[in-house]
Amino acid sequence: AHERVVSVFRDPVLLLHTTRSWDFLDMQSGFRPDGGAPQASGDVIIGVIDTGIWPESPSFNDDGMGDVPSRWRGLCMQGPSFKKSSCNKKLIGARYYGDQLGLVAPNASLARVALSTGSPRDDVGHGTHCASTAAGAIVEGANYYGLAWGAAKGGAP
């Protein structure tokens, strides 16, 4: 009923599936029944604005990746615990936005942590989780403390 809210939809209750995120997405949303993202022609660049990225995660291994798309105009920003060489053909850019995050979410605890690092390095884990869910490479033998063994992969690995 707030004047600045256009609409609100109740989310269905879903079970957590650590290696099966794409199994419970609504297939009518355009995702393929085999668990992948919609087919795209050419290269796909996915951008995630969050708490940062942990480039050493196996989800961002660039084995088998082609060259960085020629239209890419981003950068791999250096900061504490994050070198330009942390980026590769899979993780093609990383940036720290500093105080700009505080303008968007001045009271959010994740934003305050991200603001304090001065680096694209994800010291919280949320940004890495979201980025790997969207575009993580296939990681065999993924599990959660010995449960839910399987191959973890993003929607567009």
Automatic annotation (TrEMBL):
InterPro entries: Peptidase_S8/S53_dom, Peptidase_S8/S53_dom_sf, Peptidase_S8_His-AS, Peptidase_S8_subtilisin-rel, SBT. Residues 43-151 form the Peptidase S8/S53 domain. SUPFAM superfamilies: Subtilisin-like. Keywords: Hydrolase, Protease, Serine protease, Signal. One of its GO terms (biological process) is proteolysis. It comes from the Eukaryota. One of its GO terms (molecular function) is serine-type endopeptidase activity. Belongs to the peptidase S8 family. This is Peptidase S8/S53 domain-containing protein.
